[in-house]
Design a protein that fits this description.
By secondary structure, the protein is an alpha+beta fold. The protein contains 3 helices and 8 strands, in the order H-E-E-E-E-E-E-E-E-H-H. A 4-stranded antiparallel beta sheet has the order 1-2-3-6, with helices on one face. A 4-stranded antiparallel beta sheet has the order 5-4-7-8, with no helix packed on it.
Length: 166
């Protein structure tokens, strides 16, 4: 009887998510994917156009607690971690974030969302980045420390450092 009760509860949760969250997101021209990851229902949405600049990525998690991991996997490329959140944002009440897509090479691929760890099931949303970054991403002289997709420990702009070393 407990398994039937859990299954019913899971269906009820999915029904609530699909009838309240998904129509609102779709109404704003977004692509949405929902699925189960380690017993949690995750939904991820992004604008349905090619993404450029700073883009709002909406991530919901039901039940709304615990660790959520979001990665970008360009077709033919390597996985790029975007966020690991251990609790919903106090500001938004969910796991949504702003993605600075101009820090990544243009490509089609998937945003993967997982609950708990990177070994759990993935919920994937196909997206395309289009910032004019065909072979490299643009650097900003003013904010180079925060403009890179991964940590840079040196005291100089990596572009300037590469030019000076060459």
């Amino acid at each position: 009887m407990r398994a039937v009760g859990r299954r019913f509860l899971g269906v009820l949760i999915l029904e609530v998510v699909f009838t309240t969250v998904v129509p609102t997101i779709v109404a704003y021209g977004a692509s949405v994917t929902c699925g189960i990851s380690d017993g949690h229902t995750l939904c991820v949405s992004a604008p349905s156009r090619a993404l450029s600049g700073r883009v709002k990525i909406t991530v919901s998690n039901s039940p709304n607690d615990g660790r959520v991991i979001v990665t970008w996997v360009p077709r033919g490329g390597t996985t790029k971690p975007l966020i690991t959140a251990f609790a919903p944002s106090p500001e938004t009440g969910d796991y949504s974030f702003w993605w600075p897509t101009r820090k990544y090479l243009d490509a089609s691929g998937k945003l993967h969302v997982q609950y708990g760890s990177t070994s759990s099931e993935r919920v994937g949303l196909p997206v395309t980045l289009s910032n004019g970054n065909a072979t490299h991403f643009r650097h900003s002289q003013r904010d180079w420390r925060t403009f890179l997709p991964r940590a840079w420990a040196a005291d100089t702009d990596p572009v300037v450092a590469a030019v000076c070393i060459s």
